[in-house]
Write a structure and sequence with these properties.
The complex is a heterodimer of chains A (about 425) and B (about 230). With about 425 residues, chain A is of the alpha+beta class. In chain A, about 35% of the residues lie in helices and about 20% in strands. Among the domains of chain B are: about 1-40, no CATH class; about 155-230, no CATH class. Classes of the chains: A alpha+beta (about 425), B mainly alpha (about 230). The interface of A and B includes residues 198, 402, 411, 415 and 430 of A.
Chain lengths: ~425, ~230
């Protein structure tokens, strides 16, 4: 019998099995919408064909005595019809079979990943390669494979499977912890139900608008979001008692460190302002965030951030502690600092590119992150073919944040069209 | 199509703007399709709560261990029946609700009250006491009733929490006097030895909360000061 391959969880991935709970865990989704309806049998073949090329994606989560690990699987996941909402809870039972879920709905191919497997960049390369393989089988497309869409006929590269955290950890560990941030709240939807609002805008206008305010697209959107959350806070919290407002921004470190791993290589920064210091204009907020990003998202600073995580992972005493005790400690650490320093995530995948031959078959590429354990709202952004897709997910009934944020974009002169998984009608909610 | 309030563009046939809920004028009677399939819900989105499994296993193991120890030591159940009854009470009150994803206190509190009454009856019979009917039964029953009523009011009333909690404190104050009365007739202790102090404290804080609930400026002041 062939021995199964197993993978150590990378430094960032270690936290996710520890903090999962019986109705929440950290999942994200990347989807590609074609200009035609998806054929599930062809999609299943494409999923099977990609197995040898993406071995670190076809894995299940296992428990060891001291650490969790990922083990390769023999059977690929079976493609399924998509659900009424994205990021449906992935239970321990499902993750014990496969940490990857392939879904289809009309013209959309979506993959949902447990975050221990990969991050947004790795996930988007997988999904684009899946769409490429689908189009190759279906239409006999001859694709010029590059870094964005990998050739299923090739062997996986060693650098794609590496733990870039351990490799790039700095010598000095350093981390700043700020005060707790303001918390968005609302009426929780029953069960696992999630609302999704997709705002579509023109990438070029968005880019020029961001430039006008002196920042990148991420800094501009985060600035508008900061302003929105500050407004929400000022309407509910008395003056002088406001808490800092911060946006959690994941930074893709592949470019900083020249890594080409398909596994996790992302670190988050909590950037924002303290409203007690006075009112801010949008220009000031965007400028502030741009400077904070420039100051913190440097190779040296990130290397020291990585070193803080890696040093814990490599500590002999900590390594000798049984897994369950590690989980309890990690949970306590996460509850105290993991999500207390930010109000919402804005995860920008950037401009998603793929070989020219594929572009004419693809309508859109979207990126959706699930809500955090305690944040009721989250936001993710991806741009494809001149359009930017801002996906806002929430587990609460109230759409106040989305309304204020998107109407602000409209008032700034951006053309915004809005789609949702419940178009104003009463959708039957999951009450299990 | 556009939302007249938000200014965002919407797919043709949208009923209501998903941001503000404003109805969209749809003269051609078009029907928009959701970006997802609204009918397809996950079959079983939750795992069993691991804490529930762990506590159930611990309770069962403790019950087996105690029974075995007593059987080995005394060749009969000995005192293990008291431990078993306590474990059963613990399971009903603390572990059983964990098996449900969204336990409703209005259902579980009466169940807990019945379990407590049965436990007390068992202990009373087992120890040959004469305190069940005149003390334990009415006291536990009243506590169960008050708890169920408060849970129901707090769960289903959206407003008036100050009034509910204030009223609850006044009722608890009255219950303290009643409790001492049952103590008096059962155990022949004196009247008004401690209950008056507790009742007065509860009446005062209850009356204050009622005032906070009824007088709006005072309520706003309390909310602001205590950051509620």
């Amino acid at each position: 019998m062939e021995k199964k391959k197993w993978y150590k969880l990378d430094t960032a991935a270690l936290i996710f099995p520890a903090i999962k709970q019986h109705n929440w865990n950290n999942i994200f989704r990347v989807s590609v919408s074609l200009k035609e309806d998806v054929d599930p049998s062809v999609l299943q073949t494409a999923v099977i064909n990609l197995m040898p090329r993406f071995p670190s994606f076809y894995v299940r989560l296992r428990r060891g005595l001291f650490w969790n690990y990922l083990e390769s699987i023999d059977e690929p996941p079976v493609v399924r019809q998509d659900y009424a909402y994205p990021i449906v809870y992935m239970g321990s039972k499902e993750m014990g079979k496969c940490c990857l879920r392939i879904l289809y709905h009309r013209n959309r191919i979506a993959a949902e990943f447990f975050h221990s497997v990969s991050d947004g960049t790795g996930g988007s390369i997988y999904v684009r390669s899946l769409a490429g393989e689908y189009l190759r089988i279906k239409h006999g497309l001859k694709i010029e494979y590059d870094d964005t869409v990998l050739d299923p006929g090739e062997k996986p590269r060693i650098y794609e499977l590496e733990d870039s955290f351990s490799k790039n950890a700095g010598k000095v560990a350093g981390r700043e912890l700020g005060k707790k941030a303001f918390r968005l709240t609302g009426t929780k939807e029953p069960g696992d139900y999630k609302h999704l609002i997709t705002a579509i805008t023109d990438s070029e206008i968005l880019h020029s608008k961001a430039k006008e305010y002196g920042g990148t697209v991420t800094a501009f959107l985060a600035g508008v979001m900061l302003q929105t959350i500050m407004e929400i806070q000022s309407s509910s919290v008395p003056y002088g008692k406001e808490k800092p407002v911060r946006i959690t921004i994941p930074v893709n470190m592949r470019r900083l460190f020249g890594s080409r791993t398909l596994r996790n290589f992302v670190l988050t920064l909590n950037l924002g302002v303290d409203p007690r210091t006075g009112p801010y204009t949008l220009e000031e907020l965007v400028g502030n965030l741009t400077h904070q990003l420039a100051l913190k998202a440097t190779k040296q600073n990130m290397a020291s951030e990585i070193a803080s995580n890696v040093s814990l992972q490599k500590n002999l005493l900590i390594r000798a502690v049984p897994l369950d005790l590690k989980h309890i400690a990690m949970n306590m650490g996460y509850a105290s600092y993991g999500e207390q320093l930010g109000c919402i995530n804005i995860s920008n995948l950037g401009v998603v590119k793929c070989p020219e031959q594929m572009t004419e078959y693809i309508e859109r590429v979207e990126f959706i992150i699930g809500t955090q354990k305690t944040y009721p709202n989250n936001c993710s952004v991806a741009s494809f073919n001149g359009k930017t897709f801002i996906n806002m997910i929430r587990t609460i009934k109230e759409s106040e944040l989305e309304r204020l944020f998107l109407t602000k974009l409209v008032s700034l002169g951006l053309p915004v069209s809005v789609e949702s998984n419940d178009l104003g009608g009463e959708t039957e909610k999951c009450t299990v | 199509m556009y939302c007249v309030k938000c200014g965002v563009s919407l797919p043709d046939g949208t009923e209501k703007c998903p941001l503000c809920g404003t109805k969209v004028w749809n003269p051609e009677g078009l029907t928009a399709e959701s970006t997802f399939d609204p009918g397809r819900l996950p079959e079983k989105p939750f795992d069993r709560n691991p804490v529930a499994i762990l506590l159930t296993v611990i309770t069962v193991l403790a019950a087996i261990a105690v029974s075995v120890v007593c059987l080995v030591l005394y060749r009969n159940l000995g005192w293990s029946d008291i431990v078993l009854a306590s474990l059963l009470l613990f399971f009903t009150v603390a572990v059983f609700p964990l098996w449900f994803s969204n336990p409703n206190p209005v259902i579980f509190i009466p169940i807990d009250t019945i379990a407590l009454e049965l436990f007390l009856l068992f202990i009373c019979l087992r120890t040959g006491g004469k305190w069940f009917m005149s003390f334990a039964f009415p006291c536990a029953g009243i506590v169960g009733l008050i708890s169920t009523a408060s849970a129901a009011l707090l769960k289903y009333l959206k407003k008036g929490r100050y009034i509910v909690i204030g009223g609850l404190q006044i009722v608890l104050g009255a219950f303290c006097i009643l409790l001492e009365f049952f103590q008096h007739i059962t155990f022949d202790t004196g009247m008004f030895q401690w209950s008056l102090f507790a009742s007065i404290a509860l009446f005062v804080s209850g009356a204050f909360l009622l005032c906070v609930g009824l007088i709006r400026p005072l309520r706003d002041f309390v909310n602001r000061v205590f950051y509620l």
